[in-house]
Predict the structure.
Amino acid sequence: MRARLRAGDAAAFGRLFDDHAGAVYRHAVRVTADWSTAEDVVSLTFHEAWRLRARLRPDGDSVLPWLLGIATNVLRNTRRAARRHQAALARLPLRDTVPDFSDEVVDRLRDAEQLRAAAAALGRLRRGEREVFTLCVWSGLDYAAAAEALGVPVGTVRSRLSRARTRLRALAETELRNARQSAPTRRETTR
Amino acid sequence: MNTEQRDELTRLLPPPGDPALSAARGRVLKDAFLREIGEPRRAPRRMTALVPAAAAALVTVIVVLAGVALRGGPQPMPAPSATPPPVIALPPVHAAGVAARADAAAARASLPPAVAIRADQFVYIRSRVAFEQTTFEPPPADLAPGTAYWPSHPVIKPALETVRIREMWLPQRGYQAFVHDGEETFDVYASTANGTYASLPTDPAKLLPRIYAETEGQGPGPDYSAFDWIGETMRETMLPPRTYVTLYRTAARIPGVVLVDDAVDGAGRHGIAVAFEHLGERREWIFDPRTFDYLGERSYMVEDGPSRPAGTITGLTAVLRRAVVDGRGERPR
């Protein structure tokens, strides 16, 4: 598979899309809290993967860490990637409007709220910590895979995750304190 | 990371949902992608014939690179050791008239001569780095999965991460950087080549809007991200001497940035710093007061926290050497 991808085999890239577009999309939606941006990120990620295919290491197991690493770079600077693949994006068929099934609309609204809350909380971390958090915790990569995706040593992944945890804990503490002050009767529910 | 640790981290943020790409939309995106890569427009037929050859060439390159030998120069410091975080007395800062004060300091700079770097060369940056790490007590065993866990007495044991030597080989042009960090050696995709920074505007009034535009939407806020961008730009690069002055003056124009007259880097060198606070932590970018060379970074808590008093160091770095070399893995003499 890696050899075929590196050689620019279009069928292998089709297979790559089938296997991993869903994971890239999920990652992008969670980071951006925006469905249509996430679709652009999926497109840009696969175009970047095609452009950078020769840099894929010839050996290894799943190529998902490599792909999520590219997605992370795209998310860091969507505009730069978009500039590079502008023509391709412009030719993308327009997104359909949400079908008029009321259940689906309600789901979407609820999901949107949930996503925004998660993305806002995530936004309080530094970029490096955020990237490690989303890859390791939400996308389920292990330390080594996240290190491969981000091009940093395993020790860095570990320490960034530790810093993210420190920060999130501190924020949780503050929120808990504030909640206690403003609504003492809800103390138990915050736990 | 084990399941327990992942569960704990998951609980520290609101649930991220499980957004799925619909089959129909996935097909549309896939078809569009395959159309693009299948029909390289204006690409003559021979291009496709060249692809396997190019790929083969790269295999060779990668094999060679994997065997890059570190040669010349001093060896990195062996046997790193973890240390408890030092606690410093909070230094006084200037929070008013920051831009004017920074400009006055910059006007006294005496810059070293610029070094010429060829497009095929690498810049070598040797640093001493250490960042905070913490450990936690696990959540109670009877906690139902998915429950938010806000401990009333979190046990946070701060420690300064292993102090280690990090070496970076950043290409003047291109993407393939190479790093030797502690005991690890690895390739890095460098999203910005060193040469890219040579063309930064020298006028802070022109540079600052560009930084805001480039960092838009990143991090906890625009000012934080702009300050962060300036640190990233100096950390493992070799910039024209004038550019460090520009970056110092530009940082001083970011709302919330303060000046520190006496900051100490990870090698014990004293310098002047621009600093920015976020969530009770202050980060300083430290400069040589005469040459404006970027010396390193120091960060510490400025507020007393549950587990760390104000003044606890959370990060400490020092750039020990900057040089131009001809090859990856090659150390300067």
User: Anything to note?
Assistant: Chain A has ten helices and no strands. Residues 154-182 of chain A form the longest helix (29 residues).
